[in-house]
Amino acid sequence: NGYAFATSGRQVRLSSNFLSYGGCTAIDPTTNLDESSATRLIAAWLMSSFGHLQFELESNNREGARSLEQHHADSIGVFDPRLIQPQRRIDILEVFGRLPFPVRTDIRPELQPELMQLDRIFSDELARVLPNLDSNSMLLEVWDRLHDLHEERNN
Prior knowledge:
Blueprint: E1 12-13, E2 20-21, H1 35-47, H2 49-58, H3 70-73, H4 86-98, H5 113-129, H6 135-154
Helix pairs in contact: 1-2, 1-4, 2-6, 4-5, 5-6
């Protein structure tokens, strides 16, 4: 979205209901995390299986994330970009730039190389920030739950 950072233009579109996100304050000048990078990191999180699972759980299951409304969006949590190590931010944005759009929902997340790579980076960073979480177990659980929701909706 070429208008995502123009305050007078459209912001990042999060759903078909035209919700948008702008004015990101999760910045950290000491680690060169500016508004543009922080916003793209949040978008990467939302496009990852971690974000997608939340959309599926919070929205109208018949339509999945396509029927997200503001009260649903208020329940969606994001991984604070400031908690992500600077080098991992670069890695996330590089993989996010290669992520195919739309992300497929007809095959399991772990069978999509770019999505799997993005999910792995986020999983490792979550486990680093919250050491009581096991990165592999968490990732498998998210993938399984997301796959189950897609199967349920598509059948």
